[in-house]
């Protein structure tokens, strides 16, 4: 029906309302579509912005990784450089320290008064402290740099314990303490030198912080491992210090006040223990009660058989105590003037006849007199002109036509020198020398 033919007002209103409603719905739909369009554009812009931010973050992260990698490489190189520097510096420092040890030893034999002997002993203790600190700092540096490669093999605990007993029994007796090692017939898989150093440091701490009673060392089989226990009746370790004791330069507060010792150590012993144990893969734990004592535990894999170091250790224990060096002819090859003078003075105090040289050529020149044939050759490893002591000894033996006993005395702690000496049947001692040990070894070689 045409709109003009509708006369009913109410009907017209309804038609108008319907038309208005339809128009509004149409406009709402268009509005919604436009709104969705705007939302889509906004979202696209947001996605683009976030994508750019993400790419920027990834680029920064990549650059940070590159910077971190470069910094890590620089730090590793610096660490290795530090280790090489300390190794070189320690060699240079150990030379005059060795000369001082030898000179003080010779001086001690000249003292007749109690006061003079006391002063000499004080100097000796100071030199020993310097040596311990230097060697320990070098060891920590090498362990942190990862340049220490353990030489794993079968180690006789009986031989190791015998050696430790010989070293520490006089210390225990001087303090009025007992030191006991339970008999053990066992072989473990470890690096003999590093394992001995671990036990040595733990024993040293045990004796240092024990006022009465003593220290007991024993073992227990635990499946495929052997647990080495070092138990003391000392002051104990408080619960709040159980991690701190493994930190550098941490010293127990009772070393001076409770035990009456003259020194509390360097605070580096257990720091070395943790690093060496980690290098060997030997877990180290302890239990402790304040005022009752401490037990350290070292878990070491069981070995597979007897080892040749049993023989070597027995030889060390059976060195004769009578020295008998009177008239011994010694060819001494040393390029450091101070060490040469100190060593010569010490040997002559022992009634040895010494001829000194600084290089291979000098040593051979000393043999020109056919009436003078050395009973033993003592040589530093690093000599003038790039000569090596092992090579010098080889040439001297070749010249003499016989395997004259020989000893390398060096501040070079590398395994290369030790292997070269062993290969040629040459004894090896590290600088700084302990005169009593040197004298005992010379007597053994000449026996």
Automatic annotation (TrEMBL):
The record's section on InterPro entries has: CheY-like_superfamily, HATPase_C_sf, HATPase_dom, His_kinase_dom, HisK_dim/P_dom, HisK_dim/P_sf, Sig_transdc_His_kin-like_C, Sig_transdc_resp-reg_receiver
Q: Does the keyword Transcription regulation apply?
A: no
Q: Name one Pfam family in it.
A: Response_reg
Reactions catalysed: ATP + protein L-histidine = ADP + protein N-phospho-L-histidine
Which Gene Ontology molecular function entries are recorded, alphabetically? histidine phosphotransfer kinase activity; phosphorelay sensor kinase activity
Q: Does the UniProt entry include the keyword RNA-binding?
A: no
Q: Which Gene3D superfamilies match?
A: 1.10.287.130, 3.40.50.2300, Histidine kinase-like ATPase, C-terminal domain
Enzyme Commission number: 2.7.13.3
Keywords assigned by UniProt, alphabetized: Kinase, Phosphoprotein, Transferase
What name does the UniProt record give this protein? histidine kinase
